[in-house]
Amino acid sequence: MSVTNQIEGLREEGLKAIQHNFMTARLENLVNWSRARSCWPATFGLACCAIEMMATGAAHYDLARYGMEVFRASPRQADLMIVAGRVSQKMAPVLRQIYDQMMEPKWVISMGVCASSGGMFNNYAIVQGVDQVVPVDVYAPGCPPGPETLMHAIFTLHDRINSDPLLARQSSVADGGAANGAGLIVEQLDGQTATKTLRATAQLDSPQVATAQAENS
Fold it and tell me: 159-205: per-residue pLDDT in tens?
């Protein structure tokens, strides 16, 4: 019986589901499983997307079910940054400093079109895509994306964490100084009009987005 099946059995039947008094698994799988189910987001709400992020953590959607009820005010106790809202040029250095203070391994979700591509704010004051400041693992579309879309992005990130080699991110940090984000784009699930494209046409040719599209196709 696989570890996943045993865990599902524990949820339904309790200790009676354990057929033996010990379980075996690869250390990598156990560590990735625990990382995916204990992501602590950093408190980083920048605009109206933050209201939807707070709603996701409230009682109706209840992120506590996934070990994520603790939004940390200290970056040194967080391993997930949800960039919720537009990023101004003045805020970009602050965002990068907070990201650098987070412990590895760490992940980033870009929530909403303003964070992902500048959105309607196509001007000199707003960063046209937070991936110019920090590496992004998952892009959540919408203006603003609802809790369903954010949770879909979180579950996509969980799947990514479960499949990542144990020391992959630490190795990339040692080699190049910063881990490369996965750049995955999720579907909008909150009932709003689907976003035609998450990023500007000129940015779709970037190697990171092209790689993500090739993996999803």
Answer: 888 887 766 665 444 444 445 666 666 666 666 655 444 443 334 44
Its domain, for residue 181, covers 40-216
Q: In the prediction, which pLDDT does 198 show?
A: 43
Residue 180 is predicted with a pLDDT of: 61
> Distance between CA atoms of 47 and 86, rounded to whole angstroms?
6
Q: Which two three-digit tokens encode residue 13?
A: 């039947």
- Torsion-angle region of residue 195: left (phi > 0), alpha (psi -120 to 50) or beta? beta
Task: Note whether 139 and 115 are within 8 A (CB).
Answer: no
What's the domain count of the chain?
A: 1
CATH number at residue 45: 3.40.50.12280
Provide the terminal-to-terminal Cα distance of the chain, rounded to the nearest Å: 31
Helix axes 27-36, 147-163, angle to 10 degrees: 160
